[in-house]
Amino acid sequence: MMDKIARYTGYYKSPDGIQNFKIRIRLKEELMDVNDGEEKWHIKEFIWQEKLFNKDEFLYYSDIKNCVTDLERKYYEQIVNGEATNDSIFYTYINQDYSNIEDTEEDRKQTSLEKLMDTLHLSQEREGIQEEYEFEKSVLSALDNKVIQNEVEKMFIVADLGEYLEDVWIKNEIILCAIRYDKISKTISVFPDFTTTKPYILKIHGHTLRHVNYFVEHASADIPDSEAFKENEIIRKISDKKISLTKEITGEDFFLPPKNKLFVYLFFDILSAKGFEYDNLFMQYFIDLPAHWTCENPETLSGVTSMCHSKGEDGIVYYGHNFDVVLEYDIQSLQDTTTPKNPCIYFQIISKSSWERYRTEGIAYQYLPISRPNCYLYDLSCYRFDPGECSGKLRRYFIGDAYNYRDVRWVGLPTGQCDTNTFNKFGVNTVGTGEMKFRVNVLHQSQAFLKEFNEGDVQGKFIYEKLNSSSLIRSVNQVLLAFKKARRKMYEVKKHL
Prior knowledge:
The chain is an alpha+beta fold. The protein folds into 2 domains: 10-52 and 88-218, no CATH class; 261-418 and 426-445, Immunoglobulin-like. It has 11 helices and 20 strands. It has helices spanning 55-61, 70-80, 95-103, 112-127, 135-144, 146-151, 225-250, 390-398, 449-454, 463-467, 469-496; strands at residues 10-13, 22-30, 42-47, 90-93, 152-160, 163-165, 168-170, 173-182, 187-191, 200-205, 209-218, 261-274, 281-288, 293-294, 302-304, 317-330, 344-352, 358-367, 374-385, 430-445. A 5-stranded antiparallel beta sheet has the order 1-9-8-5-4. It has a 5-stranded antiparallel beta sheet with strand order 14-16-12-20-19, with no helix packed on it. It has a 4-stranded antiparallel beta sheet with strand order 3-2-11-10, with no helix packed on it. Strand 17 and strand 18 form a beta hairpin. The N and C termini lie far apart (86 Å). The model is unreliable at 103-108, 121-133, 453-461 and 469-474 (pLDDT under 50). One of its GO terms (biological process) is cilium assembly.
């Protein structure tokens, strides 16, 4: 016996409706004894909302006395006119059967369909079907909601897999496939889903244990070539229209940096400051650019925030000062240096008193993380210079000391001192003050990314891993050249020995 496959619900979009939907069922019973005869396939195609009667329904609707509603009289006419037969083990329950149930009185007898739905869940548990999602539960809940029911059509394909006990036929209804069509979302759900490779297996518990295999196959006719051509032509026109509208909005001349340039977009947000000695604080900031870095608008490299007053006992000052800077880096310079130097931003926090006294409350700096596009949040600890002498402290209190900080780059590593071996800061007294917080978003733009982007390059690589290919080749060539020189020298030394 084949391995049993799990049952899941398949969902399919049908924007053109469901009137041409067809489904095929292929079923056969496995014979336990090879002498019982040849296994026979039962094959039947079903059209959407096609009504097939079982034996009980056929006998019931054949008598005009049992037909009261319009639907029942319609079934009677189909049977009398020979349009309906019951010569197959398959039959169906369609959406109109539910309407007929709702229109009858409350004290009516339970129909065969309702009994089948009541026992459906129990029979599936015996089959060991996974209970991650039960399509039948959703159908039963839909039956209780008339608003939803009006927008959903249902169809059940059933097989009578009973057996004879002596001369009495013991009925055993099994739902082979449940189909649900949502008119609003134009979605068809099929449970269990279509299968063409492995069959679904049913265990029939009766006088003897039987195994039944069946396939659920999609049998709808393919769209004609002429209709497919028209559909593709309409889709192409719609796509061209969308592209033209996009070009009208964005324009055709999309700005790109030069091929040898890397544009780094920095979006700053100075958030807050706290823990400083005096109130009424504002910040001055500027960005120091090392070699090979430029800015088309140098005035954006420096600025001043608004003056803010602290609120509450915690003494936090909230700024919310936003500014952006566009930096340009010469990619060709990667051939001359192994690692590009990062730009650095410097902050100077200044207080202003009612007597126009300006005091530097703290200074801080941070090298900008231009190597990786991301969003960064920094908490910087600030400090200021301590004059040490009493006269210096009095001068700070009565006059202010902001003018003493003419070049705050001294707290970091100034650009002019990068190439020196030592930078002496010995003997400088400092005092720790407060803290400040700022956020920066980093974006990259370069034509060097175009090829990697089209090929689906993995995000998150460092920028210099993408742009440093020329530098890598040059480094390899330098290593090979140095190796050749060393080998030549060794050969000359060996020759003179």
